[in-house]
Hints:
alpha+beta, nine-stranded mixed sheet, seven-stranded mixed sheet
Amino acid sequence: MNYFYNCYDLAIESEMALSEMVASPDRPKTVDARITQSAVNPDGLEGAEQIGPFMWATPTDLQLHVPDVARFLVSNGNSIVFDPAPGIDEDSVRVFMLGSALGALLFQRGYLVLHGNAVQIGDGCIICVGQSGAGKSTLAAAFMQRGYKLLADDVVPIDHNCLAIPGFPRIKLWQDAADKLEIDTSALTKIRPDMEKFNLPITDNFVSKPLPVKHIYILRSDDDENGFSSTPIKGLQKFPALHANTYRQKFLDSMDLRPDHLNLCGKLAGQTPITRVVRPRLGFEVDQLVDHILADLSESI
Length: 301
């Protein structure tokens, strides 16, 4: 049985059920990307450059091995082949399918892919990026509790018109973040059986149409206890800021995508304010961070 979904502005046909995505009500006339299960060479991608212990790439293909989970082959921006490890659960396969594999496919389709979350503000959106552990998903959930709607969690593609493309209606939250936000996880599913991280459905708070990017916030934490600070990033400094927060940067060079990436970075940097927000590492409430970003946004308009 094949399943059909709408995700990242793509009509997707999949041999694996992807419960996080929005199911297509009808079989699409044209399929943009197919996800199929088949054997993937355990020795790597023939004729490709090995770019990591478990990654190989050519200009059109990227092969990724996740030990004891699955092997993935992403090709031409329209195909993901997965080869699960014996006995592995589908939840674990989907974590990497919806992350690295789908991210590689979006790169191949010419998007600038940022590692962050997109939140609708008025007729546009803000994107909050930062290193793992910066609190991006916690912040997105806090915005949602204020009544704001979300476009994407973790993987945010930007097209050539500088529009953020919606992903699928879900936030991944660690248990401690859910506790801070008073979100009951007892009815939620774990993203993997052995992880205290949960899929939080956001169906009623999800935006399904692309939106212009109004502002990008780069989240950082600091041991300074003097509260929050905002520093606008200007001029050429925007380029390294965008590059540092690109999803899976290693994919770029390996698939000869850097020229397109730089062009998109330049276009986005030329019309979008970027601000670095530093928050205390400890002793603050996430609502304070929401207030700080909203105040900064109102001042920049």
